[in-house]
Amino acid sequence: MATTKAKSAKKPAAKKTAAKKTASKSKTTVKTAKATAKVTEVKAETVGTEKTKIVSEKNSAGKKNPVKEFFARKGDPNENILTIFKDTKIIGALIGEIIGTGLVTAVALTLGLYNPLYLIFAYTAVTAGVFALSGAQLNPAITAGMMASRRVSAIRGVLYIIAQLIGAWLGFMIVSYFYNIGVDSGNIDATSTMLPTLTAADEVSATTEGFSFFWAITMLEFIGTMIIAFFYTRALEYKRGAFTFAAVVAGGVFLATLFAVVVSSNFLGVQDNIFIMNPASAFMYGVLPSNAEGFDALMGQLMPMVVSHVLFPVLGGVLGVFISDIASKLSGKELKA
User: Fold this and answer.
1) Domains, the chain, ranges and CATH?
2) What is the pLDDT of residue 12?
């Protein structure tokens, strides 16, 4: 009997222990369920937040200002007057612009602009030769367009223009040196063999007395540099190949020169050299006097020369770059730096 009582006493104790274990398990299950629910809620919140972020990013991308995006800086954002000279590459680039612009000016002086077929070969060679150094802009009108479209920094653009003016001056001085030696030696006649000077726009008149071709010449310069700048910007699509780049640029120069030659000769009836489409070359041997005797005459024709051969070509260069960029944007192509 005693054994039976002991067994019956143990059974309730075992039942209590089992109940406790069951209760603890249920509590653990409840805690686990709560924890799982919390984790699920956190994950849901995280996913919801991420989705909200993605949606907001898409909305913000869709709400981008196209004007700001168009004028966004495409060149080196860290380049300024304090950092540009830390790298010697800028020195090489300036040397390239000096040499290239000097050669382009010498070609214009020796071959003249009325031989556009020769000009295309010369321009291709010069552009391909200095392309790796500076990008072969070789024209303040193109550099102004590169600055306006924010492909180059303001300090780089100013340095390039200074280098282009120096190069044009050197090209003019070298050709003039050999020309003067030939004249002084008597081997060439100065009246029959002349350097192709740039005729002042206000001096070119038609058969009708008092008629001036000032605005016609100005528009030739404007349209010509616009064509050159457009082709230069399109050539940036092929800038990995120097020869292809040079061929596209030279093609633009050829087309602009051919247009100006045909219009000035056939339509205006003017045989003088009235265009050049490069403000650096124009400034050196058209705007600045070649000797002290020409200074008085320069004062009377300075403004017409600057307007026709400097100001409007620069405006044409800027417009040509923007037209190319707008066409690229509308066609879905990314703007090239």
Assistant:
1) 72-330 (1.20.1080.10)
2) 53
